[in-house]
Amino acid sequence: MRKLKVLVVSVLLVMFMVACQHKSQKSLNKPDKYTITYSNLLDKKTQNDVAKSLSKLLPAEDINLFFEQVNFYNQHIPTDSLVQSDYGTSKSLIPIYDIGAISDKWSNHFPLFPGYNCRLTTFQLVKSMIKLSPTLPADDSLLFIDKEALVDAPAIYQVKPEEQENFKILFSAVATENINDTKIHLEKVQEYWKQQGVTFAKSNVTMVSVWFHDQLDGVATKLFIGHVGMLFPSEGGYLFIEKISFEEPYQVLKFADKKALHDYLMAKYDTDTSGSTKPFIMENDRDFIG
To answer: Which positions fall inside the DUF4300 domain (predicted)?
Structure first.
C-alpha cells in the first residue's frame, strides 16, 4: 500500500521524497574524483568508537537510542551488501546496496512503517541542542512520509507529541522568492528560524542540511531540507552520520575536514543542469562554505 502511494503522489512530492536519497543512481555510481570511507555500524567496535566520540557531546540516552535504532534496522534487513566491520571504501558517492532485497524484507516486517530517513534520524540525535519558541504554524506539507513514519513507528522509534511538533517546525518548508539567488534563500531560512525562535546550542556537534528550491509553483515557491546529517569531530578529522533514505542504510562517513564534506554533499546533490537554483548547505543556522 505504501509503495502504491508513492507511485500516485504528485511530481512535487515524489521529487521531495527522493531528495533525501539521491538524484540519479546512474550518475552517482560512476567513478568519482575521490573515494568515500564509510561504515554501516554493523559491528560493536565501530559502534563503540563512534559512541565514545559522541559521549561528551550528546546526552547518553540519545546516543543509546540511536544505536538501538541502528541495530533494530540492521537486524530486520539483509546486510550482505553493507560494510561488515570497521570502515569500507566506495568509488561512487552512493555505495551499491541491494535496495530491492532490503526494501522487500523491511516491507514484509513493517508494511506501514517506512523506517527513518535523514531528517528523522538527525532530529533524534540533535534535538537536545535545539530550542524553539514558535510563533507561526509549520508548513509540513512536504513531510508526508515523515509524518506517516511518526504515526506508524514501532515502540523503539516513537517520538513524543511535543517533539513531533518541534520536528515539523525545524523541517518546515520556507516560503521564498522565485529567483535563483542562494544568498537570499539562505536569508529566508534564517529569518524563518528566527521567527520560530530556533536556536542551536554552542557545541562541536552541528546539523548540516542541504536545501533545495521547489519552483514547480511559479508563484508560491518554497525551500526545503532535502538531505541532512550530523557532523562532529573525531580522531583529527570529522565523522558525518546520515540515513540516506527511509529504506537505505545508516552511514557514518569519515572526512579530513569540513571542505571534504561540503564537496561530497554538493557532488551528490548539485546535479540539476536545467538552470534551476543550486542547492545550498547550512551548518546549524549558518552558511556552510566548507
So the answer is: 37-286
Closest CA to 169 of 152, 189, 154, 149: 189
Helix (H) or strand (E) holding 251: strand 250-255
How would residue 286 be classed by pLDDT, with cut points 50, 70 and 90? Answer: very high
The pLDDT of residue 218:
67
Q: Report yes or no: 221 and 215 within 8 Å, Cβ to Cβ.
A: yes
Q: Can you name the residues that pair with 101 across neighbouring β-strands? A: none
Angle at CA of residue 141, ends 23 and 172, nearest 5°:
80
Residue 44: left (phi > 0), alpha (psi -120 to 50), or beta?
alpha
Q: In this predicted structure, what is the pLDDT of residue 8?
A: 31
Q: What does the alpha-carbon distance between residue 277 and residue 289 come to, in Å, rounded to a whole number? A: 17
**For residues 230 and 123, what is the distance between their CA atoms, to the nearest angstrom?**
9
Q: Which helix (H) or strand (E) holds 105?
A: helix 99-109
> What's the pLDDT at 272?
73
Domain total for the chain? 1
Question: Which of 29-43, 78-92, 154-168, 239-253 bottoms out in mean pLDDT, i.e. has the lowest?
Answer: 29-43
Cα 59 from Cα 56, distance rounded (Å): 8
Say which residue the cell 555500524 belongs to. 41
Does the pTM of the predicted model rise above 0.85? yes
Give the residue among 147, 265, 164 at the shortest CA–CA distance from 212.
Answer: 265
SS percent in the chain: helix, strand, coil, step 5:
40, 20, 40
Q: What angle do CA 203, 204, 207 make, to 5 degrees?
A: 85
CA atoms within 13 A of residue 141's CA, in its CB half-sphere: 12
Q: What is the CA radius of gyration of the chain?
A: 18
Residue whose cell numbers read 540492521: 74
- 85-95 confidence digits (pLDDT tens): 999 999 999 89
In this structure, the chain runs to a length of: 290
Compute the distance between CA of residue 223 and CA of residue 216 in angstroms, rounded to an integer. Answer: 11
